[in-house]
Amino acid sequence: MANAEDNLFKNVISHAKEYGFIFPSSEIYDGLSAVYDYGQNGAELKNNIKEYWWKFMTLLHDNIVGIDAAIFMHPTTWKASGHVDAFNDPMIDNKDSKKRYRADQLIEGVIEKLEEKIEKEVEKAAKRFENFDRTMFVTTNARVVEYQKKIDEINGRLKTAMANNDMVAMKQLVDDLEIADPISGTKNWTDVRQFNLMFSTEMGSVADDANKIYLRPETAQGIFVNFLNVQKTGRMKIPFGIAQIGKAFRNEIVARQFIFRMREFEQMEMQFFVKPGEEMKWYEFWKDKRLKWHKALGLGNDNYRYHDHLNLAHYANAACDIQFNFPMGFRELEGIHSRTDFDLKSHEKYSGKKLQYFDSEDNQNYIPFVVETSVGLDRMFLSVLASSYKEEKLEDGSERVVLKIPAPLAPNKVAILPLMKKDGLPEKAHEIMNLLKFDFRCFYEEKDAIGKRYRRQDAIGTPYCITIDHQTLQDNTVTIRNRDTMKQERVAIHEVKAIISESVSMAELLKKI
Ligand code: ATP
Predict the structure, then answer these.
(1) Which of 389, 409, 428 is the endpoint of a domain?
(2) 385 in the same domain as 399
(3) Does 265 sit in the ligand 1 pocket, CB within 6 Å?
(4) Three-state secondary structure call for residue 411
């Protein structure tokens, strides 16, 4: 991460804590690695993101319904899904620093460095030659060709080692590339071992292997095992979808970067069941729809891009990520996967129960194919928080930090601020709050100078502030201040609701998609 972005990210993290968005878990005991708590403002923002997703899925699509499955599931679920045998990351320890790494990420780091070198050569040449032809340059420049050859060789060896589960080959690659630990600087590594990312615990009072169950590593399986329950009781006709928001747990080897990679996190997933052979049509449909959903938030269209998967998981016949430009660069925000009939077929096999759909139009039974959309709620939160965070220099030379959170997602919609704590102003302010509180989340505050109070509301992203002063008592008007423009307007109390309504409305946001 470049220094400026690094600093920005640090500022966002400390702002999130200072203003009640995110706290380290059990902080009084020095926290728990990669686990976070959402504070009073964070919980509101998170709930609003959930509402935006849930309403998009279940209100705007009459063939999608939502469920809420338990976190604990029968252990065979995870055998059938492939997680017991294959939800692994290759782990390696440095014996001197005692730090743990993912071997594949260390190797990918070498590839990234080579790619950076190529980009530097390209940039240099582009400056030198007027009619610069990139394709021509990268295929003929000796140095670049050499770098690319090296990348292809490393990639090839990495892929083969991963595909064959060959940890000895993986270690050999770490040694051959002479990778050193960034902390100790030494190449004193342990062997590479596979590490299963699922957390396990025991159910019931006897702790033996027969009672071992897992904390779900994804919410999707709760949907698959309920496929027939929902289809039958909801009389659903293919194509249809089942949506779910819920916690997932992964014992990530390297869990850094704040709430980007956590060990306990939340997913918003939708599995769309389609007729076999039609999955690519629906895959394209959901790719497009999901990007539109993101872009409607107005966080900047350039902040999103697709990243197609070249190495597909064993169950997929097409997959891509929607990446977001986080403070540390473009990273996965959401995955869209065409999962074929892998999951339902496998659950049929392990459970011995038929998981098929009778298509009355075709008069045939089949196992539907599935297109999945899966977005991390916490990563969504980070994308909103980081791109809304602005440090602004004002015309009068002062500075402010403002969270320009999309208004429908903001924790509070309006702050009610009596100018003074006397002369009947607090009473009048409460009267106004009582008018508005059924429609908008209001925040009441009467302490400190008004300027200071505005700054505090800017810092938590409140789109509107309403100030009640002595004139209010005479003519029933208030000052309404807009967070983004900082413009203040005198309006009648009965006009306030209409002014606020449109911009903070979830329905209006949904209409933009
Ligand atoms: P990554 O490659 O970043 O580990 P993934 O491909 O394993 O992610 P999926 O299994 O496709 O992720 O999960 C779907 C979504 O869940 C991701 O796009 C991401 O937003 C979110 N997610 C996955 N793992 C984590 C995590 N450890 N912490 C927070 N969010 C996560």
Answers:
(1) 389
(2) no
(3) yes
(4) coil
Q: How far is the CA of 250 from the centre of ligand 1 (A)?
A: 9
| Exposed / middle / buried, residue 226 (Cβ in 10 Å: 0-12, 13-18, 19+) | middle
376-401 tens-digit pLDDT? 999 999 999 999 999 999 988 999 99
Q: What is the pLDDT of residues 104-118, one digit of tens each?
A: 999 999 998 999 999
Residue whose CA lies nearest to ligand 1 atom number 22: 376
Strands (E), 250-366: 264-274, 304-308, 318-326, 329-340, 357-359, 364-366
Q: Which pLDDT score is estimated for 368?
A: 98
Give this prediction's pTM: 0.90
Please indicate whether residue 378, judged by its CB atom, sits closer than 6 Å to ligand 1: yes
* pLDDT score of 2: 59
Indicate if ligand 1 lies below 6 Å from the C-beta of 81. no
Q: Please work out whether the CB of residue 272 comes within 6 Å of at least one atom of ligand 1.
A: no
Domain residues for 140? 92-195
The closest-lying atom of ligand 1 relative to the alpha carbon of residue 374 is 14
With a cut of 50, which residues of the chain have pLDDT below it?
none
Which of 340, 362, 389 corresponds to the end of one domain?
Answer: 389
Those residues with Cβ within 8 angstroms of residue 235's Cβ, 6 or more apart along the chain or in another chain: none
> Is residue 230 located within the same domain as residue 355?
yes
Q: In the prediction, which pLDDT does 210 show?
A: 66
Give yes or no for residue 250 CB within 6 A of ligand 1.
yes
Output the CA torsion sign for 197, 202, 208, 214.
negative
**Is residue 41 in some structural domain?**
no
Q: Confirm whether 17 is domain-assigned.
A: no
- Answer whether 379 contacts ligand 1 (Cβ < 6 A): yes
Q: What is the pLDDT of residue 463?
A: 98
> How many domains does one find in the chain?
3
Query: What's the rounded Cα separation, in Å, for the pair 46 and 299?
Result: 16
Q: How far is the CA of 59 from the centre of ligand 1 (A)?
A: 26
Report whether residue 246 contacts ligand 1, using a CB cutoff of 6 Å.
no
Q: Whose CA is nearest to atom 23 of ligand 1?
A: 376
| pLDDT attached to residue 208 | 61
Q: Which residue has the tokens 């909801």?
A: 234
237 and 263: one domain? Answer: yes
**Is 398 within a domain?**
yes
CATH code, domain with 316: 3.30.930.10
- Whether 152 and 173 map to the same domain: the answer is yes
* pLDDT for 162: 87
pLDDT for the residue numbered 129: 85
